[in-house]
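Journal club prep, shared notes

We agreed each person brings one worked example of a sequence with its structure written out as tokens. Mine is Nitroreductase family protein. I'm keeping it raw so we can talk through how to read the token line rather than staring at a rendered picture. Sequence first:
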Amino acid sequence: MQEHKNQPLNDFIEYPHDEMLKRAEEFLAVSQRRHSIRSFSDRPVPKEIIETCIRAAGTAPSGANHQPWHFVAIHSSDVKKQIREAAEKLERSFYEGRAGEEWLDALKPLGTDASKPYLEHAPWLIAVFSQKKGGISADDKNTNYYVHESVGLATGFLIQALHRAGLATLTHTPKPMSFLTEICGRDKDNERPYMLLIAGYPGTDATIPEHALVKKSLDEIATFI
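Then the structure, token by token:
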């Protein structure tokens, strides 16, 4: 490696093999209980829980450690209403034909439609933005690298952090998502909406589509060579 400032790795914990397997199996079991739902309770969720989960997302690896992401946590009823109205307008055109027949057929087993009441009902929405320029300091204006991959990793961390904290989530990606830039007051020249996460407690009528419970086997998703 090239010379660079560094410090010893002093917080790595090595476990015996049996405990490693146990911890891996426990994480698998926790992950298998994570489901995307579309009915949320309006029960309040303390801001500090969302803050801590976002901090966990901020530990994700990123290209050149530029951390090219910004999370807008939305609790305001007025802002959530604006987002719902804008998203449902797009979704109506999507379901009325813009998506194409093949895409709509793929969605049928999930039972989705243009109505998105959870955008207003859930206690928190988290808009995830990617950044073209930035760096390790907030005022840096350098080119960011592997932006899509980096923000995807951070979003995955955030979903798992919310799940492990005891909250249900849903990923929402209306296209185009430019309305989020305006509503959230973000820099349209540097930032692009990446995803909208809904977070909160499940509603009493929350269900899971049977289609969503079908997961590919290890042989189908992995090759060991």
